[in-house]
Amino acid sequence: MVLDTRNIYKNLPKLLRRILWFSRMAPEPPKIPGLFTNYEKGRPISMTPIEMWNETLIRKNLITRECLVTKIRWYKGRKSAQHEFLRFDISSPDKVHTAILIAERGAGDSNEGKDRLPGTTEPTDTTSPPANPTDSVIGPGIPSVTITPPFASPDVASDSTASSADETSPIARGNSTVTDRKNKLKAEGSSRNASSSSSFISRGLANEEVVHATLDSIAGADMEQKCNDSDSISTLTFPEDAGPSANKLATLLVVTSALESTYQLMNTRCYWFVAAVFEASKRLFPGAKQDITKHNGGSCYWIRIPQKSSVDVVCGEYKTAQTALDAEIEEECRVEQEREEARRREIAELRAAAEREREQCRAADEQYRAADEQRRAAEEGTRREREQRQAAEEENAKLRRELEASRANQL
Q1: Residue 359: exposed, middle, or buried by beta-carbon count in 10 A (0-12, 13-18, 19+)?
Q2: CA-CA distance, 104 to 274, in Å (whole number)?
């Protein structure tokens, strides 16, 4: 058995961090909902649509402005749908922990077209892979249909074959008018069915989803496994403290999602969403180093799928939305600062009033003590006067006795 020393050395830091965590020697991840989870959480947290994740957890949470994106990775699944998604590595404010965020675009309210995370229930599907790369399941309960270029309905082809019967027979000549009318009506119905079915298959309600967990956590292991089971197309690596904040990333994902609400196989499928966000990130947040691993992004089985060009529009919408958000947050911060200053002034006034009341109480106490001391001093003076008077009276009485005794001796 040959050991893969490269993978062992690659996973050694992760193993050491997990050992430190389970031995309670590693610091806990920050409590930032929407980005980080604790190490013991067993499943990654998914939220859909992206707008709800942004509005409820990211948009007004100022701490997310201190969480910076360090890497953006473009992945393509290896399964039949060859689903593409983006992974964002986001550092914590203290640069100690990293959050994994996966953003992807699917069709409908289900996970059709997406590669589910390891450990989740995979929908059972007994149908064979589509013969055409553009064939896909658009929503729950919609069967897979093979479309033959140039998007002609199979019913039309079979009808044309049936209508090419030998019209030289007497029966055919006698019923040619009726047959032509029936074939014409049938062909028109089949054409309408082909048009509606092709439109139904190529269009659907888009559904974007974000999944997040802390790197090296139990939940993060599932997300890393999903990335390992996919092919890396390209990676953007930002210099330290130079990447966009999670707040800006959320704005970019939301405006891209809102730009095209329909999921079209040929224009706005997952390939379009991934490419639009990735290319817009390069333009909006310059300075990142790009490493291209493969060149099959936006293709299905190496067949290039036409995608709508939306990078310019996405960048414009992002700048408008982010400017409005910055102004809104600045206004809210200003209002909150004014409220805080008003609260501080009120608290200062209350403290000043309480201090004045205490001063008045201290002054009253001083006055009372001064009056009490004066009273005691007066009482002490009165007592001394009484004692002096008493002593004088005793002295006078003594002198009178001596005088009387002297007079008695003279007689």
Answers
A1: exposed
A2: 7
Distances from the Cα of 5 to the Cαs of 10, 60, 227, in angstroms? 8, 45, 21
User: Average pLDDT of the chain?
Assistant: 75
Paired tokens of 189: 């119905």
User: Taking CA 224 as the corner, what is the angle to CA 223 and CA 230, rounded to the nearest 5 degrees?
Assistant: 95
- Rounded Cα distance between 192 and 186, Å, is 10
Residues in the chain: 411
Res. 27 pLDDT band, cuts 50 70 90:
confident
Give the H/E segment covering residue 9: helix 5-22
Give the amino acid at 411: L
163: pLDDT strictly greater than 60: no
pTM higher than 0.85 for the full model? Answer: no
Spatial strand order in the sheet of 45-47: 45-47, 206-214, 98-107, 84-91, 69-77, 230-237, 289-292
- Residue 3: pLDDT band with limits 50, 70, 90: very low
Residue 231 one-letter amino acid: D
Are 226 and 104 in contact, with CB atoms under 8 Å apart? Answer: no
pLDDT at position 178 is 40
Structure tokens at 286: 């310059």
Q: If we measure between CA atoms, which residue out of 91, 88, 114 comes closest to residue 101?
A: 88
At CA 34, angle to CA 33 and CA 40, rounded to 5? 65
3 state SS of 361: helix
